[in-house]
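We modelled the chain as a single entity of 454 amino acids. Its sequence is:
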Amino acid sequence: MGAVGLASLAMAACGGSGDTGDAAATDAATTAADGKTISGTYKKHVQGFDWGAGVDVATLTLDAPLDSADATNFEVTETKMATDFTDETFPIVEVTIPRPVTAATLEDEGKTLKLELACAPNDGDGPMIFSMATQYNTWSDPYFLTIKLAEGASVTSGGEAVAALNIDTAPQLTLTAADDWKFDDFKASDGTTFHSLLWIPEQASKTLVVWLHGLGEGGAKTEEKTDPSVTLLANKVTALGLSEFQEAVGGANVLVPQCPTYWMDADGNSSNFSGGAINADGTSFYTAALEELIDSQAEELGAEKIVLAGCSNGGYMTMVLSINRPDAYAAVVPICEALEDQYITDEQIESLVDLPMYFVYSKDDTTVDPTKNEEPTIERLKAAGKTADTLHVSTTEHVVDTSGQFFMTDESGNPTEEPYQYNGHWSWIYFDNNECECDEDGLKAWEFIAENVK
């Protein structure tokens, strides 16, 4: 199980140690007799989207100015490692895919060229690779962009025709949507070290929201591949630091810790992970250490109200923490949570009756079966006396694009009028976009948080 579905291709992350390429870019260096070659470098920007992260902008620094820029004059391809989902053994192979340029603008008197790149579900664009063997996202190595003039391009510099662009393929710098967040390290008393990202609003807040990621965003078991940026970009968690969320909840600190392995890990050594599945029994090796981190961060920030939210593996951990200390949290939002109801005792159900809870899931989730997880647990909570004041449930039949930008295709590959449908496990998309609505009263998840931190 995991917050990154098995058919996700490479979900997400920011650029990093995997930024390599042929700096010479020799195939673009030939100067034609009727024009000159302009050389340069580029930096890339990584943005988190509903389906994961992608490189959405390449900003070029040129050694000579361009007179004008038109998107049709430029051609960009992305070279990376990717899992081949057409092969039943899921090998990791190098691929090069086209990246359509949607806009081109000039700055710095023509010596800075900004190319906006199209990003879409299942295009495979992104500097991260999701491994079927490990179920983790890790940096793609290599990862680079090849930027050239398009065939038939008409570009001038100082009135002279430009015949070619010679742009180093290795990015000089990577910027991400996570750059405004603060990195933080914490070592618990049991020796567990958490690398986290923290959002601190300009105006002091007494609220701390803790986001717990899914399996794919874990620490990949090795320190060199541990980077909490992936926890923000793989599921568009950067939304929690943006004005819409902050205004909706009245301002909040946001803590996003990265688990050294995965939250459902029973012993910290991944011994309950086998064949792509996790055999979890309602416990976690990380419970005490994570509680220590949360308490420490809340004390440091002066936070008096703590809200937990998490998806899949993180939804599991949201439930585990809630059961362990129901009085410690102002509210919790388990999303496609992976704690099977059979592992929750009647006594634990009773302990949750007064805790404000907002469940989110899609009925077609095949990764975490709602009939074994949320649905029986919700019914037991109701039977124990939990009322509509403290129990909200947002369900959907499917998880679909609501932006109006992406659509399903027909057998010929042509777009239809039907919204693009994601993996049914990906119900966190609705939370990230503030589109969860309670089945009973229409209350949105962000509004639910706001009501419980007043």
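As a brief sanity check on the tokenised model: The helical segments are 229-233, 243-249, 287-301, 313-324, 346-351, 374-383, 428-432, 445-452. The chain has two domains: 26-176, 182-452.
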